[in-house]
Amino acid sequence: MRQRFSLARLLASTSLIAAVAMSLGGCTGMSKLSEVTGSVGPRAEAAPADPARAVEVYGERYRANPKDAGAALAYGQALRANGQRAQAVAVLEQATIANPGNKPLLAQYGRALADNGNFQQAFDVLSKAHSPDNPDWHLLSVQGTALDQMGRHEEARTYYASALKIAPGDPGVLSNLGLSYMLTRNLPKAEEALRQAYASPRASARVRQNLALVVGLQGRFAEAETIVKADLPPDQAAANVAYLKEMLNRNDAPRGAPKRTPVASLSQPD
């Protein structure tokens, strides 16, 4: 099967994986929210499990004091987790203006910009959120995804390599690296990176999906099907197989027919 790759949204959220959930285990789950708020505010508390409820709770706190860094950070991440990308960008932009130099805010603002497709601006903002003498490997990985989205694949891979020096074997970074190779049609290298990610006990469902997609793109659909079905209940396995088929066949649609967003997504881990 001849496959053509579209850069836009081929790989976005992360982590997403699933996390495709991010991407590149774009993953911006609420499970990280208490850690983030605790770094800039007086209280670290469990985030509401429901994203919409989290938006309500943290939105009320933010509106009470929009200049409070902790409130803005929590609200911005809640908006991201709820898919309100443009609003997250607006909230976090104002927060960085009110709190210049706040690195946690800059990091979250950069992630929100990447979520929203503002890749060059995201890269520039994230560059201010950490420094060469004290790099954050999570942010290096997100910067790599932004570069991949802009078509700067070789440069992106240097960022993934730097991240992996700090966090060897991290499955999210390896997944991003694999998808970077997929974008340039180097499927063997993509599979190599994704198999390393998949071997990690910390690998997310996104990694499984990304590996299956790359294997399927090489014409080994039976093997890809085995990967997406492994260790899953029958109904979930069937749904994953159906989605994999849809992604692999998306370019078989008649010319002019709408194409769906691919399963694979560059992760933007928090």
TrEMBL record:
TPR repeats lie at residues 137-170. GO terms for molecular function: mannosyltransferase activity. SUPFAM superfamilies: TPR-like (SSF48452). The keyword Transmembrane does not apply. The keyword Ligase does not apply. Pfam families: TPR_19 (PF14559). Residues 1-18 form the signal peptide. This is Uncharacterized protein. It comes from Bradyrhizobium zhanjiangense. The lineage of its organism: Bacteria, Pseudomonadati, Pseudomonadota, Alphaproteobacteria, Hyphomicrobiales.
